[in-house]
Specification:
The chain contains 1 helix and 16 strands. By secondary structure, the protein is mainly β. The chain folds into 2 domains: 137 residues, Galactose-binding domain-like (Jelly Rolls, Sandwich), CATH 2.60.120; 137 residues, Jelly Rolls, CATH 2.60.120.260.
């Protein structure tokens, strides 16, 4: 009887040990997840509101970090330094503006830094201007290992002295990130608004029944024509789509094209793709090696029948 009991206890103990192993593995994995802790801010409002810096990494979009405004209003730039729970390879960061009815402190121009010790940050790995709106902004850069990050707000959306943030996050190199950006109309070289509703914004309104059309009533400027669009958020893209006008006419349908990307909407450099669209009213898909993009430009070099116009029902990007 003792022998059988001993054998049973041995087997039971072995089973218990085996059961513990997966649980331990889960705990290690959870502990390995990167968490964020605010180390320093140059300013925070704690008297007039709960605007402490720690709110920017508390996981609650209803709370905010806000620089001082009650007893003083120090001017931009403002900065927040955040420590990672462990060193990690980052390829980007996220910024969520305050989510209430106010916009005070919403960052416009920024610089982003990385550091191993939280003291020496060197040159920014990224600088730019956030797109307007309360949506989360995602900014990407070449992956680099770091232990500390610093976001410096150079200016505020309305030129105010303050800076605010609902949440600041990181994008690790290992993350699979596919973000479908919204496209915002910036400018065209020509649009027809008298003879028809051919404004440039129609090319990104999501309605294939409307279209952008260059001027034809009071003047007929010749090709090339171009349209510039802004991506929100800025993301790498690997192509674009062009939907010709979908009514009975083909006027303005693009034949030869060039496609450009830009960080600032001013300097576009050389085209990342050029070619000739196939005939027909079907959506055209053009791909290329992935490129970071904040702005895109489609340049129409010629029209399907050699005319002066350009038109587009919808233009989109492939993230």
């Amino acid at each position: 009887m003792k022998t059988h009991l001993y054998s049973y206890l041995v087997r039971l103990t072995a089973l218990a040990v085996v059961a513990v192993v997966p649980l331990a593995a889960v705990r290690v994995s959870a502990a390995d997840k990167v968490s964020l802790k605010v180390v320093k801010v140059d300013s925070e409002e704690t008297a007039g509101e709960d605007g402490k810096g720690a709110n920017a990494v508390d996981g609650d979009p209803a709370t905010i970090w806000h620089t001082q405004w009650q007893d003083a209003s120090p001017e931009c730039p403002h900065e927040i330094i955040i420590e990672l729970s462990r060193a990690a390879s980052l390829k980007g960061f996220t910024y969520l503006p305050r989510q209430n009815e106010q916009v005070n402190g919403t960052i416009k121009e920024y610089e982003f830094y990385l550091s191993d010790d939280g003291k020496e940050f060197g040159q920014p790995v990224k600088k730019g201007t956030f797109a307007e709106g309360k949506e989360k902004k995602i900014v990407l850069f070449p992956a680099k290992s770091t232990r500390f990050i610093k976001l410096k707000a150079l200016s505020e959306i309305n030129g105010g002295a303050w800076t605010s943030a609902a949440e600041i996050g990181i994008v690790e190199e290992s993350e699979t990130l596919v973000v479908k950006p919204k496209l915002k109309f910036v400018r065209v070289d020509s649009e027809e608004t008298s003879g028809e509703d051919g404004k440039g914004a129609n090319a990104v309104d999501g309605n294939p029944s409307t279209h952008w059309h260059t001027q034809w009533q009071d003047a007929t400027p010749a090709c090339p024509h171009e349209i510039v669009l802004e991506l929100d958020p800025a993301v790498p893209i690997k192509g674009f789509t062009y939907l010709p006008r979908q009514d009975e006419s083909v006027n303005g349908t693009i034949k030869d094209f060039e496609f450009y990307v830009s960080d600032d909407g001013k300097e576009f450099g050389q085209p990342v793709k050029k070619g000739t669209f196939d005939e027909g009213k079907e959506k055209k898909t053009v791909t290329f090696a992935a490129k970071p993009a904040r702005f895109i430009k489609l340049k129409a070099l010629s029209e399907i029948n050699g005319e002066a116009w350009s038109s587009a029902a919808e233009i989109d990007v492939i993230p």
